[in-house]
Amino acid sequence: MNKGWVYHDKIGKSAIAQTVLEYYSQRYKHSTIAQWQARIELGQILLNQKPTTISTKLQAGDKLSYHRPPWQEPVVPLDFQILYQDPDLLVIDKPSGLPVLAGGGFLENTLWFQLQKLFPQQTPIPIHRLGRGTSGLMILARSPVAKSKLSQQMRSRQITKIYLAIAQGIIQQNQLTIEQPIGKLAHPVLGYIYGAKSDGKYARSECQVIARQSDRTLVKVKILTGRPHQIRIHLAAIGHPLLGDPLYQIGGIPVVTASAIEDQPLSRKTQPENNPDSQPPLITPGDCGYYLHAHHLKFLHPCKNQTVNLRSAPPEIFSNQIDPKFISQIT
């Protein structure tokens, strides 16, 4: 069991005159009205630090806090390798299954929590993120100057990020560039979810086929932008979703059954309770099963006049899906 968490909300103009129950049941649809009512009546939800009722009307500036009791988190691999470390930055090799930040039922079983234990005085800050099901290389800043300069390199696309992916079906072209825009799509539970969207933000992925085998293709993907779930969406958009991807199917449109978005901050996260009476679990962007590995990172050290150039071999599960001779040829 973890130690529980407090979710904070500040009331804006759009929620004025709503009752406390209306606010939670309409905003956080992962739980039923009856569940939210029970939490309010049990005193788990406070209004301006005081107990409240289901019928209390909200005013602008009010502060709500939901004190979620401790819960049993899903088991995940907590081990990760540190491949590069100095006073300014850290590069780690994350296993598939380990969430980076809290959310989706995860609080302590996250990379962030493990880093807090290892570096309690000044916890490294992620410069970019990997989805829970994505393995491989991540850069984290350990000093303010490193955070600023690495973030600038990320914005100006000076950091080389190359991934390995196993896609469904046979991709005919040896090389291709995907520029499908990615944006927010309306979702009945989440509010929104990312997917292929004609008026979304520009996104660019450069793909090189490494091997074709039976009904799948091993692809090396260089991303020039960092949109949420970009590679998953892009390969699905051209008709080749990642092998095993439960969410993004042909067309790059997510299956509209998701109940949580992994990358939302914990205070805004929609999380079902571990309760047999709660709604059945639904597919989420954080669900694993797909084959995606952050293989290569190259960037300028933020405080030294030198290039950091690191590679990570794909995990063994890749060799279970693609002939190992092709894996061994990857550079």
Write a structural description:
- This protein is of the alpha+beta class and 331 residues long.
- It folds into two domains: 5-68, Structural Genomics Hypothetical 15.5 Kd Protein In mrcA-pckA Intergenic Region, Chain A, CATH 3.10.290.10; 81-328, 2-Layer Sandwich (Pseudouridine synthase).
- The chain is built from seven helices and 16 strands.
- Strands 5, 6, 7, 8, 9, 10, 13, 14, 15 and 16 form a ten-stranded mixed beta sheet that branches.
- Strand 13 (205-213) and strand 14 form a beta hairpin.
- Helix 1 crosses helix 2.
- The longest helix has 12 residues, at 144-155.
- The chain is globular and about 65 Å long.
- 37% of the residues are buried.
Labels describing this entry:
331 residues; alpha+beta; Structural Genomics Hypothetical 15.5 Kd Protein In mrcA-pckA Intergenic Region, Chain A; four-stranded antiparallel β-sheet
Quote the CATH topology of the largest domain: Pseudouridine synthase
Arithmetic mean of pLDDT: 91
User: Which series of helices and strands comes N to C?
Assistant: EHHEEEEEHEEHEEEEEEHEEHH
Residue ranges: pLDDT <50 for 5 or more in a row? 257-280
Task: Name the overall outline.
Answer: globular
CATH class type of the largest domain: Alpha Beta
